[in-house]
Structures are given as structure tokens and as C-alpha cells.
From TrEMBL:
Origin species: Pavo cristatus (Indian peafowl)
Signal peptide residues on this chain, from the entry's feature table: none
A GO term from the CC aspect: Cul4-RING E3 ubiquitin ligase complex
Entry's transmembrane regions: none
BP GO terms, sorted: protein ubiquitination
A Pfam family: DCAF17
Protein name (record): DDB1-and CUL4-associated factor 17
Superkingdom of source: Eukaryota
InterPro entries the UniProt entry points to: DCAF17
Amino acid sequence: PIAYERGRIYLDNYGCCISSIAQEPRILYQKPKCSKSEKIEDALLLECPLGEMLPNPSDYKPSLIVLTVQNWLLRLSADCGEILEKVYLAGSCCKFRYLSWDTPQEVMVVKSAQNKLPAAARQAGIQQSVLFHLAVFQVLPLSFIGMLEINKKIFGNNVTDVAISNGILIVMYSMGLVRLYNFQAISEQFMEQPFDLGCEFNWNGEVGVVGKYPFGLPCNIKITDIPPLLFEASSLENAFQIGGFPWHYIITPNKKKHRGVFYICSLKDNALAKNGIQDMKCCSLEPDWIYFHPDMSGRIIHVGPNLIKVLKLKEVENNTDQTEIAEDFIIMANRENCVNSSVTVTSSGRVVKKRLNLLDDDPEQETFKIVDYEDELDLLSTVAVTEIGADGRAHLDLRCNEHGILLKSIPLLESWDVVRKLCLFSGRADCVPPHKFPV
């Protein structure tokens, strides 16, 4: 994968780092080829907090947290690739594969792949009760908060995925159900014993060092009973988001016929907002997507093939208890020269009738592919593509985030295939259709 983070481009699965800040790109470091056992599965960029005293001088510089195939969590210098810290997570009992933020730049979550028994064990009737492991860390200085299991004896047989975000444990089920639990309350109620990295421990008869090979980390948060439920909702493909002010959530009714229809409801009482059903009624191969604006304004961005709507929540006139969804501004794709007529006349005068209408994201029409927000410059950027010919052409538009006014348009000279690969691996949750559980 190709990844971009804060002026650094990572190639060769984070083995090569190129600075893009200087006038000409330059290689910051190039690591030797590693074996398959050292392959990096996931990574997060870590930047030091402001106004805090940190134990080591290296902590004040950006670093890269990486997760390897063999369950090692490494903190690397972002400028030279030097290993600053090493933590061993666990043995072969589980395979950790994913890194994410609970609280950005403060609390990090390491998630395992779903535990599955070998086919022979399943045929023998052996049951697998533990589905996922989650290890939670405070970062800078790196410290271990706890590890917990997601057990189907506690949470049910139909669990398909799990995440921790903003202090909420999110559990997803195969029937489209999403349940939210208070992770802090869980850790306080079910924490058996706290542990510090590098300290000796005696756990279930084993003596070792926390975070060192071969013992790794103890699973010290044992959920023995179903925790109190904060909230639950049923949504197609577990698509569920929380945001806005006052708090609202976005779901798609849990029926395939409602695909592409979004309901915006109050988190307080589940009441549907006025104009809260958003449906672009677009006919396209790629679905439209919707999410709360990452600028913390409480607005909502709804992106379709040729239309971007920025929506806002406001009180209904003469009714302060209800909210209304109103348009803040709209961005349209440039399709002035597009003629979608069912009847055309050839140069010889022959009348040709089309049996099918063009899709809204037909490759020959300008179509929005990416919407991104730059927080430091407060810019909303969009990439629109017209795939005419083998490569296709695209342009990046920079807009005023408050009003959507076009400030600058930059044509992308490279082929769209190359640009698309760079964008999809950028690691930004707000530039491509969001994951199924962005809270």
C-alpha cells in the first residue's frame, strides 16, 4: 500500500519514507527488505501532545506506531525509521491486525482478526466462544490500559464486528443491529488487575514481563456479564453514525430496498428530524454516502455522483424540541455539455433511440470521487473525474469550508488510476466513503 501522513509518503509497506514538504521529494529513510514474519499490518501516525512533559526527548518528535504479523507493536521514528519502543501483544492464541484511535492522539486500540477454529475442530464439534480481542493503550508515554475479549456467551452468537471509538464499545451483529456500551464503565467494573508495561507479573500461574516475549499482555478485563446498554439501532449493513448538535444519528433502514436512503434521528428520543429522510434517488454503480462533517460544526455532508450537499441542523421555528435538516450549500458537478437524450440523430440523418438511460455516474460524465476536509486551512476539497479515454482526467477543487465558494481548481496531470491508489491508501476517514461504524 501507498500511504500519506503529514507530509510523508510511505512506500513498500512503510519500508520507504519520502518527504513531500521540500521543493523536491527526498527519501527520509529506506529500510532493508523484511521477511514475511516482519510484515506491517497497520500503522498510525503519532504526534506529541501540547503542554505535557514527556519522559524521553524522542517523544517530542512524530513517530509511527506499526503492527506486525507476529503481534509486535513497534513505535518508529517518523524521520529515520529507528525503533523507539517494542511491545509484544500475545502468542498464537489471537492474531492482531488493526489499529485505530479511541481518542485521536491519546488512546489507541489494537484489534484482532475474528478468531476462527480450524475446519477439523469445527467438524469435531468444538465451539469457539471468544470472537475478538481488543488491547487498549494510552500513548505518549505508551502505557497499557487493558485487554478484553468479546465473547459470544456474553454478547450473543451473531456478532460480526467490534470497535472502540470515543469511549464507546460498538458491537455489530449480522442482522444489522448495532449496540453501544460505555467502555470506561466496562473497564472499571470488570478490570481484574491493572498492569504496567515492563513490569513482572504472575498471571494464571505464568510469570513474565508485561509486553515482553513470549508472554505479551494479560487479558485483564474479563466481562462476566452483559454490560448496561447505552443505545441500539438497526441499520442496513451496520451503517451507523453519531454527530451533530444536539446529538443525532444517521442510519439506513434495515431493508435492501432502502439502500441509499438515510434517516437522521435525534439520539435523545429517536425522533426523525424534519426533512430527516435524505434520498438523492441517484441511479449509479457506486452508492452515494453521507457522514457528519469532520470540522465539528455539526453539519452533514451527503455526496452523490454529481451533487454534494452540505446540510445543517437547526431548530424548527416555534418548536424548540424538534430539529430540522436544512441545506447550507450545494456543490454541483460540471455537466453543462452533457446531453442525456433518448433520441439522437447520426450525421447521415438516421434516428437512433437509446434503450437505456445513462447512469448518474457514467464514466463519460464528470463525477465526484473524493471529498476531503483540511482542518488547519479550513478548506473543503473535492476531486471530480471524467473517465474519457484510457486514463481519464480529474481536477482538485479547493473551496471555502463555510460557504463552499470555489477558491482554486487544480488539474491532476497523472492518470486517474494512479491518483485513486494514492487517495484510497491515505488513511483519512473523511476523504472516501466512511467505514461502517464511524462514531
